[in-house]
Amino acid sequence: MNSTISRLFAAILGLTLVSNVAISQDEESTANYRLTLSPVISYATVSGNESLFREHTWRDDGFIGGLQSAVLYDNSDAIAGDLRLEGRFIAGNGDYEIQGEWVSPDGNIFVNAGFEQFRKYYDNTGWYYEGIEDAYQRATTFDMDIGRLYFDLGFKPQDNTTIVLGYEYQYKDGTKSLRQYQQLDDNKKIYPTYKDIDEDVHIFKLDIAHQGSDWALQDSMRYEIYSSDTFRNLMIPAEVVGGTDPIGQTFEEGYDFDQFSNALTAEKWLRDWLLISGGYLYVRTEGEVGFEMRQLPFTGSHAHNDYMIDSDLTQTSHVFNLAAMAGPWNDFMISGGVELELGNRDDSSEVMHVSPSSSQPVSIDAYERKVSLKEELELSYSGVPHTKMYVRGTWVQTSYDLDELEYESDTGTVDLDRDTDTDRDEQRYRAGFTTSPFSSMSLSAWYQYGEVSNIYTHDVDTASGYSAFMDSLDTNAHELMVSLTLQHTNWLRSYWRYTMVKQDYYTETSDIGPADRVHGANVDSNNYTVGATVMPSARLFFNGQFTWHESRTILDSLENPMAATWDGDVYSFLTSVNYAITDKTSVDARYLYEVANNDQEELADAGGLEKAVAYDRHGASVGLTHQFTDNLSGRVAYDYWHYNDENYGETGQYTAHAITLGLTMQF
User: Fold this and answer.
1) Dihedral angle computed from the Cα positions of residues 458, 463, 469 and 470, in that order, rounded to the nearest 10 degrees
2) What pLDDT does residue 240 have?
3) Among 451, 458, 450, which Cα is nearest to 420's?
4) Which of 113, 257, 428, 524 is deepest in the core (most CB within 10 A)?
5) Which of 225, 226, 246 is nearest to 236 (CA)?
6) CB atoms within 10 A of CB 321
7) Which residues lie below 8 Å from residue 562, measured CB to CB, with a gap of 6+?
8) What DSSP state is assigned to residue 650?
């Protein structure tokens, strides 16, 4: 809380400087400002799992309130320019925003500054399994504050040149639940786990841009200081396992990186039908990584091992690109480009492997070289009236050369020496069109096919195993999108949309499995959307949408019933209506219904835990708004939520009600 207050104070101080940056001392200045304030207060009551309610609605139960919106616009003589301030402050919900912009009268100097934060809630309820004590399902609320503080100063020394200096601070601070459950004695992974996160990044910015009559040049520099400390708790308390000591693992990770990057881009019209552009990006990253894993019990028949890793990392990338766009000629237009990336990564690590009987320091050195070439070409045709058709191809060839050496720090004995070459070939092809043959109809569609091939060549490998057993990994994907919009009458419009994705994975693992290429997995998804907007009169507006999402994942190369097929559907219906009762009074209502189901019977039949998607959700609200005067309006609203998830038993349910009161005042 103290860190949030300090960030908010810094933002307010910065905006105070913005508002006073060019205040005139003229006592006869004329006031010319507009101020809008929207205070709000809301109270919610929850019956059932309050943690799950907070995660779904991004709000706390009980009272929350403050300023939903505050806007000040001032261009009076005292400001010597145009000033705009906006803010939001919701106490009890960690929701804050304040931002400001000032522009000098001639437009040659401008300042942007602000602070924003929102709070994300997490429910940490354990998975449900019939016959296991509900005590394992501890309904706990975690939350994460996510925000940023920024300040930009820009000026134009010339009409066509802009320089911007800036600073930005981003952060995450809090605890989140994990979708990783610990295993109890009955082999059911249902006990909840969590992760603490403390992450921040400082970004220093410099942008210079110049615009000529037929050319443009821009340079963007960034220097980032990144720091992250996380703690994953996968521990089961002693009172849950029925012993004297807890069981499980904890993981502590720390990342500290400095990154410098600079991007230079240029473009020029050589002819009125030919545009060329090019750029160069340089990125260098240096940092340290710390990792520590603790496992319990550490001794006895079920003893585990501890690991401590300290790594130094240096990574450099050079990226060059060149592109061109030509046309149109006879309604044809062609565009394309090439991009070359040269990179390397040097990683040096010290690993301490601690077992109940001994500890062994190990050194690991890794060096990776990367060369990647990307080509893209697109041809479009607009000769058919009200229609544009296009085809596009993208090709990427990438090679990696990874050298790994692991040896005992004390004796120098080599435990692993590996040299792996990876050849990766990607290609994607898309064809599509957009047409509007009538003013009442718009139709667009595209189809894309893509495939990725990875071939691994192990020139040196003194210790076969992960990941050297992999000889190849190939994927291909078919994607389709069709969208149709119809204006049936001047008061009725409908839209229809369908998307499809079909992916297949193929592997070759000669050392541990069949030498032939086998089909490893299949992932299919289909999405159907239909909606309508109805406005039979100036006072009545209606909108409705129905969505059906179906997905399936099959791991058919593993003859293991625990790798069960995932086959599920999610249906949702959302509707809203607005009606103006009088010129000053209006009513609005919204309703959401969503239901999901999943069939994973193979896993349940094999004695596993069927972790399905099976829930239904209702959300409804109704509000009344009244304009009391030209400068004052009020609103009262009622919200209702109901949720039921079979995976969590009784703790997967809640019913909630909320009342919200708000005003909007203009000065």
Assistant:
1) -40
2) 76
3) 458
4) 113
5) 246
6) 17
7) 603, 606, 608
8) G
Helix (H, G, I), strand (E, B) or coil at 605: helix
Phi, psi of 511, rounded to the nearest 5 degrees: -75, -30
Q: Could you say which DSSP state residue 512 is in?
A: T
Residue 639 near residue 658 (C-beta atoms within 8 A): yes
What are the backbone dihedrals phi and psi of residue 107, each rounded to the nearest 5 degrees, phi first? Answer: 75, 10
Given a contact cutoff of 8 angstroms between Cβ atoms, the answer to whether 338 and 373 are in contact is yes
Contact status, residue 149 vs residue 9, Cβ threshold 8 Å: no
Euclidean distance between the first and the last CA atom of the chain, given in angstroms as a whole number: 33
CB 597 within 8 A of CB 610: no
Place of tokens 């930005």: 168
Q: What is the C-alpha separation between 502 and 524, in angstroms, rounded?
A: 4
Beta bridge partners of 284: 260, 316
Residues 6+ apart with CB under 8 A from 358: none
Q: Tell whether pTM > 0.90.
A: no
Name residues whose C-beta falls within 8 Å of residue 106's C-beta, 6 or more positions apart in sequence.
none
Taking the C-alpha atoms of residue 82 and residue 261, their distance in angstroms, rounded to an integer, is: 34
Mention every residue, 6+ apart, whose C-beta is less than 8 A from residue 353. Answer: 305, 306, 307, 359, 360, 361, 362
For residues 522 and 218, give the distance between their C-alpha atoms in angstroms, rounded to a whole number.
45
**Token pair in block for residue 620:** 């409804």
| Mean pLDDT for all residues in the chain | 87
> How many CB atoms within 10 Å of residue 572?
16
Bridge partners, 491 (sequence order) = none
pLDDT tens readout for residues 327-344: 988 899 999 999 999 999
455 with 423: CB under 8 angstroms? yes
Nearest to 408 by CA among 366, 350, 468, 367: 350
Residue from 44, 45, 33, 121 nearest 85 by CA: 33
Positive or negative, the Cα torsion across 171, 173, 177, 178? positive
pLDDT tens digit sequence for 189-202? 778 889 999 999 99
3-state SS class at 331: coil
Backbone angles phi, psi at 639, to 5 degrees: -125, 145
Structure tokens at 369: 């070289």
Q: Which residues contact 10 (CB under 8 A, 6 or more apart)?
A: 115, 149
| Separation between Cα atoms, residue 549 and residue 619, nearest integer Å | 19
* Burial of 26 per CB tally in 10 Å (0-12, 13-18, 19+): exposed
Rounded-to-integer distance, Cα 37 and Cα 68, Å:
8
pLDDT of residue 601: 56
Rg of the chain over Cα atoms, rounded to whole angstroms, equals: 30
Higher-confidence position of 135 and 310: 310
Q: Is residue 39 within 8 Å of residue 147, measured between CB atoms?
A: no
Q: How far is residue 339's CA from residue 630's CA, in Å, rounded to a whole number?
A: 58
- Tell me, what DSSP letter sits at residue 212? -
- Contact between 173 and 198 under an 8 Å Cβ cutoff? The reply is yes
Scanning 375-519, the segments in alpha helix (DSSP H) are none
What stretch of H or E contains 9?
Answer: helix 2-19
**What is the distance between the alpha carbons of residues 370 and 347, in angstroms, rounded to a whole number?**
14
DSSP E strands, 355-386: 359-381
